[in-house]
Amino acid sequence: MTAPGADTQHGIRRRNLARVLGAVAADGPVSRAGVAARVGLTRAAVGTLVDALLRAGLLVETGPAATGGRGRPGSELAVSDTGPAGIGAEIGVGNLAVCAVDLRGRIRARAAADVADRGSEPGPVLRRLAGMIAEVTDRIAALDLRPAGLTVAVPGLVARGTTTVVHAPNLGWRNVDPAPVLRALTAVPEPLTVENEANLGALAELRLGGGPDGSGAPPPDFLHVSAEAGIGAAVVVDGQLLRGARGFAGELGHVPVYPGGRPCGCGARGCLEQYAGEAAVLRAAGLDPGRAAAGHPGPRARVELLAHRAAAGNPATLAALRDAGTALGIALAGAVHLLDPEAVLLGGALARLAPWLLPSLERELTARTALAPYAGTAPRIRVAAARCGADGPLLGAAHAALRAVLDDPLGRSWTPAVSRQLSGE
Amino acid sequence: MTAPGADTQHGIRRRNLARVLGAVAADGPVSRAGVAARVGLTRAAVGTLVDALLRAGLLVETGPAATGGRGRPGSELAVSDTGPAGIGAEIGVGNLAVCAVDLRGRIRARAAADVADRGSEPGPVLRRLAGMIAEVTDRIAALDLRPAGLTVAVPGLVARGTTTVVHAPNLGWRNVDPAPVLRALTAVPEPLTVENEANLGALAELRLGGGPDGSGAPPPDFLHVSAEAGIGAAVVVDGQLLRGARGFAGELGHVPVYPGGRPCGCGARGCLEQYAGEAAVLRAAGLDPGRAAAGHPGPRARVELLAHRAAAGNPATLAALRDAGTALGIALAGAVHLLDPEAVLLGGALARLAPWLLPSLERELTARTALAPYAGTAPRIRVAAARCGADGPLLGAAHAALRAVLDDPLGRSWTPAVSRQLSGE
Predict the structure, then answer these.
(1) Chain A residues 318-337 with a CB less than 8 Å from chain B
(2) Which of A202, B15, B258, B361 is the most buried (most CB within 10 A)?
(3) Interacting residues of A264 by C-beta distance below 8 A, sequence separation 6+
(4) Does B171 lie in the same domain as B156?
């Protein structure tokens, strides 16, 4: 038995293949010499690894690079736009979505549907989702892409290391494992993972958040706050998700902001969700959450309703969003003191409502973190809307599904040789 | 130039030497076969690495192991109690301390002094500390131990990747770098590091917190709350300190608990420190913080004063500690929702006062984290006094100073051959 950290020959080759593929995926097109400089291996070693990745169809040569007239033109390498694709699926409160992303990070197929899943049984929802997954995988087959794994985003807590949704209050789900149904009804190979939507939104920001030149990319330490019906957050430390002992980290919605305040469904008082959650904001804006939900099905419709009223200057809506921003600022002040992130990104509904939340949020956060030690020695915490917005969880899911390929490029059935063998061709 | 993660031959050998030394340090005495099983390398490879560590004097053979009558008795390996020693130093509010710890984790020399350092200039404090460091290194020389590095614990914020104390309000220090003075006045070799005392207390729990059989050891994810004059915390995730973007993570003392409440020195209102910090508790117990400080110099004397009054049933003291526990419970509820640790350990003064703080703290924390998803699916969060108590930061500092040896066993001047060469023997 070999310990996971041991430097076996096989483990070293796997890691070096992953480094080479990762370097081309991040910076391609790039020459072999460029890859060697990036990963810290000799050009000879990189050449061997590149050949293996070319044979497996994960890399392609893009023709000679521009050399500025000096030396022999070297061929440049890029990741393939055929071969493995990550399948991402999202179970939202009121909507389902599926997409496929290739190694270059581009969406190649997509399906979406509005559903009335609040309080509905998981079975029908998952069967509908399986149908959408089959539709997307059929479409990418025509593009010479094969599913390399599936990740499902859910608005709830997922027990660490499992696919079980322990609790998704806004779906009314408790201890639901979507994996067996999806395995039975779709042909997507392992790994099949289930993940909290705020975490996947944060992964999307990490993977896609920068501009073409990398500008605007999230820093390695940030907090990604996400809201649909509830409020969740992802804590990213050194570019990695912090999951917590049980997988329940990031429950910002139940951080106490006014400890003796409004009773919360969780049994406590004064939780952030009672001041900045969807129902609380609708109510404070003079709208009945139940009637708003009926008249504006799907969370995005209700967020649009608030945004339009705020843009039109409706005083009750503006006051509701201002107070929600203040409550967010108090909760985030605690999070900033504990975690010292470089930035706070507002995703999901909060991204859309950021123009009206940010002034009071930043005022409160600055007042509570303008602590003497920080003054003059460090930049103030940056608060901004997430770039991926409401698409974050779905994109993050598709990228998470590609992770297994990037971590172990030749290890699985997504390489043509192995998949032909498996299917008896 | 080689990237830090690259698998060069040199890097692999260094990591494997570290794994072998680490395995013996954690579990020794242990046979070569036991080491091989633990680190996942062949017995031949382990034999070569062990020989190098024996030659360097970092491992010793302890004679034949008991074999239960079967096979050839194999010699067992242990880490040496001579050779490199970690030097830990602590700058407390009112006290200085220095100790030396050998590779076996035992304290081999120690010095301590009470000082009136609150608001004093750094120069005299650091010169006094340098004298104590010289005293300790002289004493361990007679034990055939050589300093392998120095770590200094401070009650304040240290900018990440530097030795600069950005702010230590209870010392009155701002932007003080102790390193140049200590380098000039002591002969301790690099690395010289400066670290927040709550972080080092957490490291001590990680390294020493278990019983002889490992029972009571902290889990990989925990929060270590520490209080002397102020309140700080260390966040440990997967056995590693979470430092934050600027190195300021864990500022639990400024988490808002009653957002409209008492004004704090940091400029905000309702920070935890205003309800559970030393001055706040003394005041609530009917004691004048200034007079208590004069009559009971050193933070431990004031903590003892509170403990004695509480043990004697003094109503005002009991009420003050109960209210402090409630405030701690509110702040920790937020931290638990964000971080999902397995345990909260109370260190420093809080460990001593735990009997009177814990009932209200646990009541508040349970009420705020008894959230539906957790009920019945996960154990309740464990809250306990830290095992190292007030000694944690000093012990953690000494162990941190040994880290460089454990990470790169043959890389530095602590091996006899190299140090003899360096000193011209």
Answers:
(1) 330-331, 333-335, 337
(2) A202
(3) A254, A270, A271, A273, A274
(4) yes
Cα separations (Å) of B307 from A185, B84, B279, B354?
64, 39, 15, 10
Residue A86 in tokens: 């990550």
Quote the CA–CA distance of A156 and A133 in Å, as a whole number: 21
For chain B, how far is it from start to end, CA to CA, in angstroms? Answer: 34
Calpha distance B111→B100 (Å, rounded): 9
Rounded to a whole number, what is the distance in Å from the CA of B40 to chain A's nearest CA?
5
- Please tell me if residue B352 touches chain A, with a CB cutoff of 8 Å: no
Cα torsion through A297, A299, A302, A304, rounded to 10 = -120
Gap from A100 CA to chain B (nearest CA, Å): 31
Average pLDDT score, chain A: 86
- Nearest C-alpha of chain A: how many angstroms from B381? 10
Nearest to B340 among A248, A265, A338 (CB): A248
Choose among B86, B59, B91, B90: nearest CA to B75.
Answer: B59
For A253, which residue in chain B has the nearest alpha carbon?
B337
Dihedral sign for Cα A310, A316, A319, A325, please: negative
Q: What is the CATH number of the domain that holds B268?
A: 3.30.420.40
Which whole-number Å values give the CA distances from A63 to A35, A74, A80, A273, B20, in the listed order?
16, 8, 14, 54, 47
B245, B250, B330 ranked by CB distance to A259: nearest:
B330
Query: d(Cα B313, Cα B318) in Å, to the nearest integer?
Result: 7
Q: What is the pLDDT at residue A49?
A: 94
Residue range A276-290, pLDDT digits in tens: 998 899 999 999 877
B260 shares its domain with B316: yes
Of A6, A7, A339, the CB nearest to B249: A339
Residues of B in contact with A17 (CB under 8 A): none
A9 shares contact with chain B (CB less than 8 Å): no
* B180 shares a domain with B38: no
pLDDT tens per residue, range B134-164: 999 999 999 999 999 999 999 989 999 999 9
B chain contacts of residue A257, beta-carbon cutoff 8 Å:
256, 259
Number of Cβ pairs < 8 A linking chain A and chain B: 202
Q: What is the secondary structure of A282-327 as a DSSP string?
A: HHHTT--HHHHHHHS-SHHHHHHHHHHHHHTT-HHHHHHHHHHHHH
Q: Are residues B265 and B322 in the same domain?
A: yes
The boundaries of the domain holding residue A299 are: 212-387
**Residue among B244, B255, B337 minimizing CB distance to A340:** B244
**Tokens at residue B233, please?**
């915390």
